[in-house]
Amino acid sequence: MLIDCFKVNCKFNDCHFIRESNMKIFSGLVVAIVLCLTSPLSAQTAYETDSTNFYVENSTNESLKFVNMLLCYMKAMAPDQMVNKGTYVASIYNSECEDADTSTSDKNKAQPKSAKTQTSGSSSGSSGSSGGQTGKTAESNTVTATRADNNSPMNIKVWVNQPGVECDAGGGITTNTAGAADGAGGMCMPEPPMTIYVEGIQSAAPTVSSKFGNFQMNMSYVLTKDWMTMPAGTKMGGGYLKADTNTVIFRNQTMRDAPEALKATFTSSGVSGVFLTESYVMSPMPGFSVQLTNKFVMDETAKVYCQQLLAAKKMDYENFDADGFPALSDYTPTGSDGLTTDEVCYSTDVTDAKRNVWQYGVYNQNGSRLSLGQAGFPMIAEVTVDGVTETVHGYADYWGVYFDDRFSSAVKYIGDGTPTTFTKENFSGETGTTTYQIRQANARIEKVTRTYSSLNSLDKLTAVMWVDKWDTSWNPKWDTLGFTGDSAEYSGSYTKSNNTWTFNKKITWESGYNETTLSTPIAFTNQQWVDTMKIDHGDGWVEEKNLWLWSPDSGQSYEIGKNSLLNPTSASTTNGLVQTSGETLTPADFPSALYCVERCPTAALLSASVSAATSATTTGTTVASPFDPDNWQVLKSGENAGQSYPGVLASNVKTYTISGLQVKDATGNEIMFPTSITDPWTDLKSSVYAMPWGANWTEALDWGVGTGKLVASQSDLDKIECEKNDSGAYRDTHPELNNSAKRYCPDLLNASDSPVTTYYEVRFGAAPWDRTKYVVDQSTGLDVKFASPTVLFYTVPDETRYGDDAGKTVRLDYMGFGQLFGIPGHVVNTQTGESLGKYYTGEWKEHYRYAARFLIEKDALGNDPTISTGGESPTIYKVKALEGEEWLAIKPSAKGTLTYSSDVASDLPAAGLLVDVSPTAGNGGIGAEPTSGLINGGKPAVIHEEVVYTAP
Q: Please, how many CA atoms are within 13 Å of residue 607, restricted to the half-sphere of its CB?
């Protein structure tokens, strides 16, 4: 049956076109419906059997996004596996079917960054930051799949409940509020709450002469409650998909949105048809939306894809027609608007395509997938919202616990009345009923561990160094190395073969990013740096400046000391470069106490800062600092008050104790944001807090408060006592402190040769990422400990095809199978395949993408790629691409060589094809959603394609 063909090995939300190993290109729609390929297994390891798929991006594919999302939903509901088993509930993960818009994030990634603003010190960045959250939320759907006998059609009915997203009272776009899609203060996009009624009928299976057999799907969208000016029950639109013999037609339209439509006819050599899509004209400002009808053709034999614009309509989103759709008016492309009526052709030859990989698999040497430990899992609970019992789908993993924002007040935590009990949703092969409750802390505690790599691992990596000429004591030293003139950043690289640093570009920021190529590069060896960058202060104290730089290739900063410079091949704790990795701790691993030397908040000071912010009468108010001023390395009086000076008295060190989930200061009070602060971006009124002792910068209170680096033992604390001279006295005679009193220099925690290999950081805040949630196994009373990410390293083959990246070793973050991040990127014009460079500050266009600069692939000799844990005794892993995208190269010579099956816009499927299948249709449609008689007791029988129900 056709529905069996939903079992394809591709990610449907991105499955616009897919290139298989035979190098043929198929429409993503066709793949999703009919590509049912099987092949004998020649090996049994995951490394050899996991497939690799590349998806081709172009405007035809854009028109198929809804089709692919729909088919992904259907696949996730597994109706083919539930025929005649009864009405059931299916849980699906929307994020795995929806195509994310990356245009904003790509544009942000393309912006140049200043080395001066990057994290200084030996830390190379923490791989365990909250920015890597990967939690998933689910929704429930009710499904029936029936068939009278083998000669009868298969009938599928689906009821999809979409809660929608509410923003301000009018439903418009506003700053973040409860229910917004962006929980970090971003823009809230309102979405209507709807029930989607779906009817699918398959009456004929595919055959050799009929690619699709006969399959039809009808959809109706109905408001479930009042939204904007429309009452509940309003029909918002619908969709129609029909596959018949060798033709596919599709139309989808939703009130106040642009319609989507496609007609495609397939032959033995390719596919041709017409499609409808939306684009945007930027000029004249402020721009406007246009509806475009294009014809297209693809010939697999010629390896060519062509398309041509047939008609354009200007869309008016301020005025709507009688059916609630944007009013249309004729529009003639001008050429300068980015539109053309000329035919445009592309090569579909794999050798011409530009590739980008989204997912890599990492494998052990025996070919099995590399597992980090306890993986995330879905769980389910029932809560009461406005007197109605509703189902909450949660997901728990290393990054936290997730469920839909609309249940935030309904889900109760341990210690918060009667806690909500979640039940783990079992997958195939799992047995038993495991229940969990959630407890929430008012802080996040992160353990940071140092590992080491050799200086030579930076070979050829792009390095950007800030040369500070304001410190006049070092000016002659900089001049000796060749850095004359004013303060600036310099870009270059390190060459391990001759231990030489070469900087060939100067970067300034006075009027934005300006990069100048030096006529004579500045070069020096490791030995020259060591010999030059030092000052003899006498009394046995020789101050030696470390080489600090930041690499845009890795996004990491490096502080390189004398030992590393003189021993560039060593990755030992004495000579190696420090790499840090962070781990968000579960309560069982909390240290009993933490010592804070610098940047130390107290319960009273933080409470005062928050109180001042919430009671402020204006936004953006500056409130007092939450940090104790005694834990700040500054002079506090006299003409130099506020200037930095090393050292904090031991008597001022703050000791935090951890009791349960609470971090308490010396008074025994918990350091926390009050639990009454639920929306920090609104409740705290964009207030900022000033640094102690007149420092000339502030930080945003609504983003939380973080401590400095903390240690967990007195022995580690004593390792950062300020340095002494040969006579046993402190080398620095502090202008204000008692020089006979013990004091600590927390900067020693940043040093590349720091004796402290593990430290901690604590964050306090009202945002979800600062109020860590833990799931407690009710059978053991213990928190579930999920596997944390790990750091891996990859060396790019030293081959000319990799350009400036050849031979570089890059640090990558592995966060679980398919999640390998950190490959440096560049901006690509997907229409031409041209690289616009590592940075791009010009006008951003919709066909620009920020993509990886290289692929992890076989080298020129055919050797499989590997990555490792790094260090002196690395563990080696296999790696392979799993999923990616391709951009077709333009082929002007193909213009006029192919024949289209359609030449007129009227060939598009019309709105009259839509069939109302809602309960208010004349024939009753598919009826109201069943609420009784559900199998599996009403609990999900399918979890995103996995059948978890066993018939009694």
A: 9
What are 181's strand-pairing partners? none
Q: Helix, strand, or coil here: 44?
A: coil
pLDDT tens track for 672-719:
999 999 889 899 999 999 888 766 788 999 999 999 999 999 999 999
Q: What is the largest CA-CA distance in the chain?
A: 98
585-591 LR contacts (CB < 8 Å, sep 24+): 585/445, 585/446, 585/447, 586/774, 586/783, 586/784, 586/785, 587/441, 587/660, 587/661, 587/774, 587/783, 588/782, 588/783, 588/785, 589/447, 589/785, 590/445, 590/658, 591/658, 591/712, 591/760
Spatial contact of 344 and 308, defined as CB atoms under 8 Å apart: yes
Q: State the pTM of this model.
A: 0.72
Partners of residue 78 on adjacent β-strands: none
Contact 812, 822 (CB under 8 A): yes
Residues 6 or more apart whose Cβ sits within 8 Å of residue 131: none
- CA-nearest of 182, 247, 196 to 69 is 196
Neighbour-count burial of 271, counting CB atoms closer than 10 A to its CB (0-12 exposed, 13-18 middle, 19+ buried): buried
Determine the 3-state secondary structure of 475 from DSSP: helix
Please give the DSSP secondary-structure letter assigned to residue 152.
S
Residue 837: CB atoms within 10 A of its CB come to 13
DSSP state of 369: B
CA 789/CA 818 separation, integer angstroms: 12
Q: Please, what is the end-to-end C-alpha distance for the chain in angstroms?
A: 26
Q: Is the pLDDT of residue 18 over 90?
A: no
According to DSSP, the residues that pair with 438 across neighbouring strands are: 775
379: exposed, middle or buried (Cβ count in 10 Å: 0-12, 13-18, 19+): buried
Who's near 56: CB < 8 A, 6+ residues apart? 16, 17, 18, 19, 25, 348, 353, 885, 886, 887, 888
